[in-house]
Specification:
Layout (H helix, E strand, L loop, with lengths): L20 E7 L6 H13 L5 E7 L6 H11 L3 E6 L5 H11 L4 E4 L11 H9 L4 E5 L7 H19 L11 E4 H4 L12 H7 L4 E5 L14 H20 L3 H30 L7 H33 L7 E5 L5
């Protein structure tokens, strides 16, 4: 068994070199889980011949998680801690961790001990085989069957069907990434589960492997029906971004063409009734329907042009954070 890599205390004249591995853990009310999690994680890191850093992102915890994290950071400079001012959600927590991670490889996992740190070396080995993203698959998931597992399986099937990226388990936080790929991905809403989709859009090579999953020992599950609904709404956004992110006018253009085709059909039928049966156009409701379709088509075309301007502005000026940091430990202020 190898010892932990020797990382001297960084100074202005001797800055700490970038580590081989960054581990990012979003934390929300996991006070009891944190000490045993760190012990398990440290044991795994001790067996790996890699330099490392561990980044805990406290997502507005209301229990004693912040004190536990500060205590861990005080004992080990390679533990980085970010405290949010309030709860911004797992996506924001992961985004914050990814932003400050400096390792060549980045691994994300939950802080509730349901993910097993022992799976990390195998995932890194899969990255070494040439993959850009390795996704965990909780094939023997230790959660409630009807309220959690069944909706999750349905959601995974639907996401794969819509996006074309087929995975068994989108919701598993345990994933390994090449850092250069993460630099091209920005997260919003509940988008963290769609990281493989964004990686695919960026040209990344994706793999999936079975990982261990343990029953929750402390705390409460953050899973809810409302979250499932949010995930489905985000799926619409992902599908739109995947297909029309750089060309939204194409999307609105199709709707415009359909509306104007319907308008022509309605007006044409009204004209036919006028010449065939002598019925006045003003007495035919279908003529007014045709006018409505024409108006809607024009509005959709304008929306498309506005969407083009918005997306161009987005791509040229993105960089606005989706979280606000209260304090940091072992990290520079800026």
């Amino acid at each position: 068994m190898s010892t932990l890599p020797d990382n001297p205390t960084p100074t202005p004249d001797n800055p700490s070199p970038a580590p081989d591995l960054s581990i990012v853990l979003p934390v929300f009310d996991e006070e009891e889980s944190l000490p045993p999690l760190w012990e398990a994680l440290r044991a795994v890191l001790a067996e790996m011949d890699k330099s490392w850093e561990v980044i805990f992102v406290n997502d507005g915890s209301t229990d004693g998680s912040d004190a536990v994290l500060d205590g861990l950071a005080a004992t080990e400079t390679r533990i980085k801690v970010i405290h949010f001012r309030r709860n911004f959600g797992q996506t924001a927590a992961l985004a914050a961790g990814f932003e400050v991670a400096t390792g060549d490889a980045v691994v994300a996992l939950d802080a509730d001990l349901q993910n097993d740190p022992k799976d990390i070396p195998a995932m890194l080995a899969r990255l070494d085989e040439g993959f850009d993203v390795v996704c965990g698959w909780r094939h023997d998931r230790q959660d409630a069957e009807l309220s959690v597992n069944l909706p999750s399986r349905i959601g995974n099937w639907l996401i794969g069907k819509v996006t074309g990226v087929r995975l068994h388990d989108y919701g598993c936080t345990l994933k390994a990434f090449r850092a250069d790929l993460l630099a091209d991905i920005r997260l919003y809403g509940e988008m963290h589960r769609y990281l493989p989709v964004f990686a695919h859009l960026a040209g990344g090579k994706i793999s999936e492997m079975k990982v261990q999953h343990h029953a929750r020992r402390w705390g409460k599950s953050k899973y809810s029906v409302i979250k499932v609904f949010r995930v489905l709404l985000d799926l619409l956004t992902v599908h739109f971004l995947a297909s029309y992110a750089t060309k939204p006018l194409y999307f609105f253009g199709r709707l415009t063409a359909a509306a104007w085709a319907s308008s022509i059909g309605c007006v044409g039928w009204a004209a036919y009734r006028k010449f065939a049966d002598g019925e006045f156009v003003k007495d035919q409701p279908i003529f007014m329907l045709g006018v409505l379709f024409a108006t809607v088509g024009l509005q959709l075309l304008v929306f498309g042009l506005l969407a083009e301007l918005v997306m161009r502005t987005y791509y040229e000026s993105q960089g606005r954070p989706i979280y606000f940091v209260r304090s940091r430990r072992n990290l520079p202020r800026d």
